[in-house]
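May I ask for whichever protein you like with its backbone structure tokens?
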Amino acid sequence: MGRMRSDEPDKRDKSHELSGELPEYAERVLDVADLIPPGRVMAYGDVAEWLGEGGPRQVGRAMALYGGAVPWWRVVRSDGVLLAGHELRALAHYREEGTPMREASRAAEGHLPRLDMKRARWDGRPRETGADTGDAAHN
């Protein structure tokens, strides 16, 4: 699909670098990330479940290496904690898109809010059906 790759190459498998193409799994992960509507999120495990293969770590790896070409802030940890090292950039996107957040307690490190996963999680169903509000992944 002609996506841009991350500047950091995958050090384990460089065969895709020779052709300039993304690994197939990474391409599928990025396709799912592109589907997530503004203001909604999917956890890494949700994406893996949607695809029917891999797991949260594989999705996280694909996003870390190649996710810069998609709305990376919409693929998140299941506990709603913001992506370490990218908290402020992600927070700006969440605020712009109206993504549901939970305010941080004063005891929370850095006083950063978390995503409200109950309200922000997207179940993969099209918005037109009015059924895009659940927290279950696509079956």
The helical segments are 15-19, 24-35, 44-51, 56-66, 87-97, 117-120.
